[in-house]
């Protein structure tokens, strides 16, 4: 059986990645493709509990924060992502391991080597086939996210009850480091990353996302036909 395609979306607060994950999910379903949408942290019972802690008012050290993200990721990978991809179902992720490198590594200035090792432990070597970076400035990122938070608070929604987002409380310099980290990651792996201008209209971005994903799906089918439908070696997902 051909493995599913693993697509992740990354970017700063308010960049629009959640909207794009939903639009891509809808487009895949319209084309008869099986797909699931996951978010980090979350999408498992443990992940949702950890999400409440990470997005709530509970104070914690940067090291504790890092380890909670890693724990949520490990649970997601081994209980949801591997089984889903092995069944030939595509996975769309609202953040994955690159977020930890950008936020805790570059933003919090924690050790990149340590974070990389923890990510390898949590993911078992699983990496997205395609990662979209919705690239916007730190100033625009904070303007959008704080504006949305104000709307949520006025509506009395759940996010307002949980308090202000942990990362939105950080100074602009923190968010500049996060975005610089993302850009370095993208520059280091151009075959995996697709950097998009996050200030473009939602529908324009959705078209750009679909063009890249659809091309990857076509290539995966061609490779599967050439290989007689066999997957990659060693039980690992094939990178497109």
Short description:
With 240 residues, this protein is of the alpha/beta class. Helix content is 57%, strand content 11%.
Mind explaining what this structure looks like?
This protein is an alpha/beta fold and 240 residues long. It has a single domain, classed as Rossmann fold, CATH 3.40.50.300. The protein has nine helices and five strands. It has a five-stranded parallel β-sheet, with helices on both faces. The longest helix has 25 residues, at 62-86. It starts with 5 loop residues before the first strand and ends in a 14-residue tail after the last helix. The model is unreliable at 153-164 and 230-240 (pLDDT under 50).
Record keyword descriptors for this entry:
Rossmann fold, 57% helix, five-stranded parallel beta sheet, 9 helices, disordered C terminus, globular, alpha/beta, 5 strands, 240 residues
Terminal CA distance: 16 Å
Within CATH, the superfamily carries the name P-loop containing nucleotide triphosphate hydrolases
Query: What integer value in Å does the Rg equal?
Result: 18 Å
Shape: globular
As for the number of domains, it is 1
The average pLDDT score comes to 88
Tell me the structural class: alpha/beta
Question: What can be said about the biggest beta sheet?
Answer: 5 strands, parallel
What is CATH's topology name? Answer: Rossmann fold
- State which percent range the strand residues make up: 5-15%
| Unreliable runs | 153-164, 230-240
Number of helices: 9
The neighbouring-strand order within the major sheet is: 2-3-1-4-5
CATH class: Alpha Beta
How many beta-strand elements? 5
* SSE string: EHEHHEHHEHHHEH
């Amino acid at each position: 059986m051909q493995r599913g395609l693993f697509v992740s979306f990354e970017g700063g607060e308010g960049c629009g990645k959640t909207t794009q994950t939903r639009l891509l999910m809808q487009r895949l379903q319209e084309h008869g493709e099986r797909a699931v949408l996951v978010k980090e942290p979350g999408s498992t019972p443990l992940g949702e509990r950890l999400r409440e802690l990470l997005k709530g008012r509970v104070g914690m050290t940067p090291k504790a924060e890092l380890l909670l993200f890693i724990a949520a990721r490990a649970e997601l990978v081994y209980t949801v992502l591997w089984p889903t991809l092995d069944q030939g179902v595509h996975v769309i992720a609202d953040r994955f391991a690159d977020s930890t490198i950008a936020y805790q590594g570059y933003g919090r200035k924690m050790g990149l080597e340590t974070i990389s090792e923890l990510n390898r432990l949590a993911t078992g070597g699983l990496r997205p086939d395609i990662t979209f970076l919705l690239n916007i400035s730190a100033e625009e990122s904070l303007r959008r996210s704080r504006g949305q938070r104000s709307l949520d608070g006025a509506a009395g929604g759940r996010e307002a009850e949980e308090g202000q987002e942990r990362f939105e409380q950080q100074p602009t310099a923190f968010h500049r480091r996060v975005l610089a980290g993302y850009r370095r990651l993208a520059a280091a792996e151009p075959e995996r990353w697709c950097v998009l201008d996050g200030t473009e209209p939602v529908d324009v971005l959705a078209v750009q996302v679909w063009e890249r994903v659809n091309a990857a799906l076509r290539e995966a089918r061609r490779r599967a036909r050439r290989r007689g439908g066999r997957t990659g070696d060693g039980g690992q997902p094939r990178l497109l």
